[in-house]
Amino acid sequence: MAHRILIIDDEEDIRQVAAMSLETVAGWDVMMATSGANGIARAAVERPDAILLDVMMPGMDGPTTFQELQKNPETAGIPVVLLTAKVQAADKKRFSDLGVAGVLFKPFDPMTLAGQIAEAVGWKD
Q1: Which residues carry this modification: 4-aspartylphosphate (predicted)?
Q2: Helix (H) or strand (E) holding 103
């Protein structure tokens, strides 16, 4: 059975490259959302196996979106992997302190993205 993943990112090109990568390389089912609020709503309805969440978005940023997901019993158990261009040590610590499953960095390699997500969330297939 294919994993189902929700990509929440405000940048269309990032969403498209990540989706194509995850569908083609790993055979996963991919859903997309363009904002934190839209992603929270989709996650509650779709119940994906994992969420790839951009850190820097207008309106509700990734960490705030993650905190909102944690407040809802419907979405609190979904592992979240942050995707960010911020690679400073202080940022890494702040993100890991949130309790996310993992943090991946932009630019990402489309050929290894699925493996990095799978490793972060503990999928063994």
Answers
A1: 54
A2: strand 102-105
